[in-house]
Write a structure and sequence with these properties.
mainly beta, 24-stranded mixed β-sheet, membrane, 9% helix
């Protein structure tokens, strides 16, 4: 029996070794083999490229700009011309040569920075894709970027601005758009001075930092990373974090917040709203103006509740983990639930 098990084990190890070497051979073939340079792994068929391509399109009949980007950094700019300009430039060493492509489909302009279709493409260097639009353009822009930074720091006034980044940081400023949707799979999102009817920010892995944002409806979600926002005026705000802290300063508006793991800190500059806060694991701190009036319903399974407002208590547990009452009138509602963590309600 032992000999049979030994032979079986040897057979399994042999097959595993053969499969491993076969996979390595396939990868080496795709990359072009080894190139010995200080023992570095480099494709033999790579070349040096200097890229400088421009394509211009009249903006008169364009109502949507769609950018399909592989890896160059994207810069959104504005000028006073009547053309939409795409400029791909930079130096790189690679086993493929990227190209700039544009096409018009009705009122839609498609801009692509195409790369190799091989599963294994290698490159080093830096490429930029500048998209310059007329200051009079006020329609839709949608960007889908696989890898690379996205920067839009020039004033934009649009009907829709939609951005999805798979891997790369995002920096936005001075954007006014009826629909504003920003999603990032991996990378930070930073925004300043934005105005939108409906705004949405979502990050799978990375921090979200916003300042000076006005919106009727604001949705923010982070799976792994902090949410840090300052000077926000939104009629209705939804904040969700799976793992990470939420910090909000100078806030105005109704808020519905849920956190699985992380601290929550929200400070209002003006208060005449409804608040619903929930945390599975982490403390909740809510700061309100001294003249705030509200009905409070707060509970925590494991932790203490502290409210420094002159509250008329309707219900309070002996353990101090449940507090229901009213401060002034009950026109505004505050509901706080914490599974594990302390709750603190204080004045600014």
């Amino acid at each position: 029996m032992n000999n049979f098990n030994t032979k079986k084990l040897v057979t399994i190890l042999t097959v595993t070794t053969i499969l491993s070497f076969s996979a390595a051979a396939i990868i080496l073939f795709a990359f072009g083999g080894f190139h010995n340079s200080s023992m570095s792994f480099k494709p033999q068929n790579s070349q040096d490229y200097s890229i400088n391509e421009e394509k211009n399109t009249k903006a008169k009949d364009i109502q949507e700009i769609f950018v399909d980007n592989s890896f160059p950094d994207i810069n959104i700019k504005v000028d006073n011309s009547d053309e939409i300009k795409a400029h791909l430039y930079g130096n790189m060493t690679a086993n493929f040569k990227p190209k700039l492509e544009t096409e018009t489909n009705g009122t839609k302009l498609i801009i692509r920075s195409s790369s190799s279709h091989l599963s294994f493409s290698t490159f080093s260097g830096k490429l930029n894709l500048d998209i310059t639009i007329p200051s009079s353009y006020n329609h839709a822009i949608e960007i889908n970027s696989s890898s690379g930074k996205v920067v839009a720091l020039s004033p934009l006034s649009l009907s829709k601005f939609k951005l999805h980044v798979t891997s790369g940081d995002t920096s936005l400023k001075d954007i006014s758009s009826y629909e504003l949707t920003i999603t990032s799979s991996s990378g930070t999102i930073v925004g300043n001075n934005m105005n939108s009817k409906n705004a949405s920010f979502e990050s799978t892995s990375g921090n979200i930092t916003l300042k000076n944002l006005t919106s009727d409806s604001l949705v923010m979600s982070s799976s792994s990373g902090t949410i840090n926002i300052d000077t926000i005026n939104s009629k209705d705000t939804s904040l969700n974090s799976t793992s990470g802290n939420i910090k909000v300063n100078n806030f105005k508006g109704n808020v519905n917040q849920r956190t699985s793991s992380g601290k929550v800190s929200i400070a209002y500059s003006e208060f005449n709203n409804n608040v619903k806060l929930s945390s599975t694991s982490g403390d909740i701190n809510l700061k309100l103006p001294k003249d705030a009036q509200f009905k409070l319903d707060s509970k925590t399974n494991s932790g203490d509740i502290d409210c420094n407002f002159p509250i008329t208590v309707q219900e309070k547990s002996k353990r101090g983990n449940s507090l229901v009452g009213t401060v002034g009138n009950d026109r505004n509602s505050i509901e706080i639930t914490a599974s594990s963590g302390n709750v603190n309600i204080s004045s600014n």
